[in-house]
Amino acid sequence: MRTLINSLQENTLSRLKNPLIGAFIFSWTIWNNSAVLVFLLSSNEKKISLVEQAQFELTDDLLAPVGLTVLYLLFVPVLNMFYERLIDGVINKHRNAFKQRTLQQHYYTVKRTTIAKLDSDEDENRKLRDRQLDTWSEEKRQISESVINLRREYAEKMAKIDNEVSSYT
């Protein structure tokens, strides 16, 4: 007997985990919330009476919950997609820009401290400046290439996202 009950319980749980059935049960419960609350908060005699008097109503028991289920299964993923686009396209952009400014300020401060330390030694200071001048044009070229590559990658990713979004609508 215990095995039969466990088998039925596992079968019921696996069916409830199905997105369609779970969404329908959720929608039915939301649509009929007052009847569910009355049933849950009633005495046992009242529950028996409610079960005996229950009748199937096409609108309340099937059509409205199916409509809510369809809206839930189709509309929520679209909302999630727009939310992710908002997060990736706007919020993360500003967050990354803020992080970059913070890091730039930090490294600028470190650089100023290092320069101040090196200014005390005139020969070391001249050597450092000569090395900086030697590598400055190459560093500028590398940074420019990096910026161009990052902009190209960003444009490709945004185009891909736009294509994906347009395929949903």
How many strands? 0
Continuous helix count: 6
Instruction: Point out poorly predicted stretches.
Output: none
Morphology call: elongated
Query: What's the rounded overall pLDDT mean?
Result: 84
- N-to-C order of helices and strands: HHHHHH
Q: State the assembly state of the protein chains.
A: single chain
Helix percentage: over 70%
Question: How many domains make up the 3D coordinates?
Answer: 1
Q: Helix/strand/pairing class, anyone?
A: mainly alpha
Portion in beta strands: under 5%
Radius of gyration: 32 Å
Termini separation (Å)?
52 Å
| Largest β sheet strand count, sense and barrel closure | none
What would you say about this model in short?
This protein has helices spanning 2-16, 19-31, 33-41, 44-53, 58-119, 122-168.
What does this structure look like?
- Keywords: Membrane, Transmembrane, Transmembrane helix.
- The chain crosses the membrane at residues 20-42, 62-83.
- The chain has one domain.
- Helix 2 (19-31) packs across helix 5 and helix 5 runs antiparallel to helix 6 (122-168).
- 2% of the residues are buried.
- The protein contains 6 helices and no strands.
- The protein has 169 residues and is mainly α.
- The protein has helices spanning 2-16, 19-31, 33-41, 44-53, 58-119, 122-168.
Tags for this entry?
single chain, 92% helix, mainly alpha, 169 residues
Helix and strand layout, with pairings?
Blueprint: H1 2-16, H2 19-31, H3 33-41, H4 44-53, H5 58-119, H6 122-168
Keywords: Membrane, Transmembrane, Transmembrane helix
Transmembrane segments: 20-42, 62-83
